[in-house]
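Two proteins, back to back. First:
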Amino acid sequence: MMCRRKSTYVTAILIPLAVGGLSALLSRNGMAAYQTLEKPPLSPPGVVFPIVWSILYILMGISSAMIWCSESQEKSQALKLYAAQLAVNFFWSIFFFAFGWRLFAFFWLLLLLVLTAKMVKSFYQIDKKAAYLQIPYLLWLLFAAYLNFGVWMLNR
């Protein structure tokens, strides 16, 4: 199967952007309530989140396209991990914002971190550059876990 590079990359970038956009749309009502909550130190202003997530979703798409285009026998397993973490990512905003399940969302985020770490390891075995593109995502998820837990603690 030939990898049509441009269309593959465009599609691969649009998938996580669409997943993130739909998740944000479904949880937008809870985002207004979030503004009224106490937040832990280092919490960025709300405008930062859609910018950072857009960049992370673009990097995610590029990385997944690199794996898709590889000739590796392990790419199917790597892409399954990618899809799993993307599905878990989708639901986090809904749990945290729309439902207000802050502690549950924190544990869900820990699941996302584990899946993402496994995905990065799997990507690394196929294409190191694809794995490296996910390092900002892993770091952001760690920061998000800190914020999530802090919001829960300060607003119980």
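And the second protein:
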Amino acid sequence: MLTIGQLADYAGVTTKAIRHYHERGLLTEPDRDSSGYRRYTAAHAITLVKIRTLANAGVPLARVRDLLDAGQEALAAAIAEIDHDLENRMAQLSRSRDQLAQLRGGDRLYVSPEVADYLDDLRDLGVSERAIQVERDGWILMQTASPEDSALWIAEKRELMTDPEFRALYLDHDAAYDWSPDDPRLPGLADRTRDWFAEHPSRVETRPVHNPEIAELAARSQPGASSPAWERLAQLMTRQPHRP
């Protein structure tokens, strides 16, 4: 006859684990003897070793009870099922590890490789992190809501960034974010921007958008997506060209 401590030492578990198995109905709890101690038998030890073996193999405790007294065929089928579940969990863990690895790469966890490369190009160009974050958040929304549109837009956007004049405009617009709305440079920037887009009509922005609500949300609702100077710039671009 064994005390709970001796049984725990024999099976290589803790007394807390044994009590937990009692609570789960996996291991019967013996009555106390005249000294007030619970005394465990060899049958308890055998059952406890079975529980420990199954649990260490990854069998959920909820399944252990059914397997303790299962026949060989039923046990083999149950183990095969549990093994399949474990395989799926391992695959999910592997995917989670891949995502964690991507986290170290920053943007690449949230957007496509094409968009991530584009954002890296912006950094190399000297674009502010504020503007890059606004771009990234917009692409996250668009790629989720309209992957087909997003793929076309990023292809054109990356092509546009190969144009030195467009790159200069992009940098000037980025810098203008912090200007005063009365800055005398704004009318000239508005004229340059209007002229450039008049000569380079977009091939994709005129296409119907599959999810216009999300497109509007991406364009208007992000923190940092506008400023007083940018709002003034947008007004100037709708007016007649300002010529000195």
